[in-house]
Amino acid sequence: MGLAPNLPTYYLAWTFIGAGMAAGLYDAAFSTLGRLLGSDARASITGLTLLGGFASTLGWPLITGMEHQFGWRHTCFVLATVHLVIGLPIHLLAIPRSPSLTAEGVSTPDNPAESGVPDKSGSRLLLLLAVLLTTQSLVASTMSVHLLDVLELLGITTATALAIGMMVGPSQVAARLAEFSIARYLHPTWSTRIAVVLCGLGIGLLLLATPWLAFVAMGLYGAGIGILTIARGTLPLALFGPADYGTRMGLLARPMLLAQALGPVVAALILERSGSSLLLIVMCALVAVSLAVSFTLPDK
Fold first, then answer.
1. Is the N or the C terminus of the chain less surrounded, counting Cβ atoms within 10 Å?
2. Sorting pLDDT into bands at 50, 70 and 90, what band is 1?
3. Which fold, 116-294?
4. How far apart, in whole angstroms, are the C-alpha atoms of residue 234 and residue 240?
């Protein structure tokens, strides 16, 4: 990207970056933890997302400062160097290549107690889980891309909208701390239900178009999204066990990535033609679908 002489090369660079993100962000990390730690991976998944919650909080100001100081091309070179000099050696040298579990701790497809469900029931359960996570991914990607536009169309000033948007990051971290310390005693299905309700309440409060309530709304929404990020890793592990965990994570990631790509585009059309209120109502309806589906999942 830093060397891109024209727009097609710039788009090609984003294509490579997108492929790298699909292979190297939470889904791949969760699969790795599930492979290494088996059913005991929940605490590590939560801890990983807790640390990851600071990525945008620390990274965006740092990258913005570098861009202002050195220009965007040199900033790209610095980021590429960090990936190669810091990130790559960690992946090559610090991550074990084989599970540390004993033979008894590793589940197999032939062990019903570990895999949790028979094949037919498992396929139905995987489909329901995919619907829940994909719907929430669509909501999250839409809100992430269009939040400032939605707030401004509701009559909230740009400066206030920016401050409201900043509530999401700290709320995610706070919710993940709560998950790590308190909610870890809940079944992941119940954590997911709580998170979906928080998201729905947050989006619904935005419809009132009141600035101080919008701060509360984004606090609730951010908390819900923070917990749902953890649920992406812990819920499949709890429902199916560690056997073929990486494969299931890959199957679940496909529709989620499609939703993340298409959701903001469709949302932009709704915003342009019908305004922010209709978009928020649609988002609330999708959250309601997610909540209904969550009650079809086992919670013990």
1. C
2. very high
3. Growth Hormone; Chain: A; (1.20.1250)
4. 10
